[in-house]
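Archive entry. Fields below.
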Amino acid sequence: MCLTCGCGADDVRVSLQDPHHHEHGPAHPHDHRADRETLVLEERLLAKNDHLAEHVRAFLAVRRMAAVNLMSSPGSGKTSLLERTIADLDGDRRIYVVEGDQETAFDADRITRAGARAVQVNTGSGCHLDADMVGRSLHALDPEPGSLLFVENVGNLVCPALFDIGEHARVVVISVTEGDDKPLKYPTMFAAADLVVVNKIDLLPHVDFDLPRLHEQARSLNRDVTVLPLSVRTGERVRDWYAWLGALTAQLEELEEGEPHGAAVGP
Ligand code: MG
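PREDICTED_STRUCTURE:
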């Protein structure tokens, strides 16, 4: 198990796809006691994170804010999507961004130039953001009530899916240059998503990307997920993204009238 992030190696399987391969027993005896110890550590780490995520949710509820967790591989266009969103929506509703990367403040600089207040979290060797990092970022941002928070998670399709950061919705961004087989390769990420944004559809004529196949795979893991193809570069269908965000914030406002919006929701 990776103790930095708590992602498990307990169920890792290494399968050789070799027609000449014959089954043999394990080369080394396996230490099950070490397995149990790592499992207990993992459970403690995730329980602590869940507790801190409740604090984040409480902070957001008091300020009547909506929070969206953006997850993807590096290079899918998360930061570009946020730059465009800030340019188009910031007049309607104040936007704040938490940027997660292992190193550099490149993305927070881009967000700031686009006109929104941003915090950059550098995780060093870590591969995800957790609720503690988001909580500390929120205190630094001091966002105004009724605003919208985007958390751009560290770029990978594995560890960010395991950590509740107190968000109201989880968005997975993939681009058509990455291939249409990602949902079945990274099922945890897609099973937990409220929305899958498929970016760079302006490149579809130049790549082998089967949009219906992507839809089918995503829905086989997550029946209610919405799949939204768009192009940040050309602006094609970005209005659908804004409509989805509008539906999310409207749903949270409706919930506020009844009860604090603690539960994760998706439009
Ligand atoms: Mg980025």
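CURATOR_NOTE: The pocket of magnesium ion is lined by residues 78-79, 107, 152 (CB under 6 Å).
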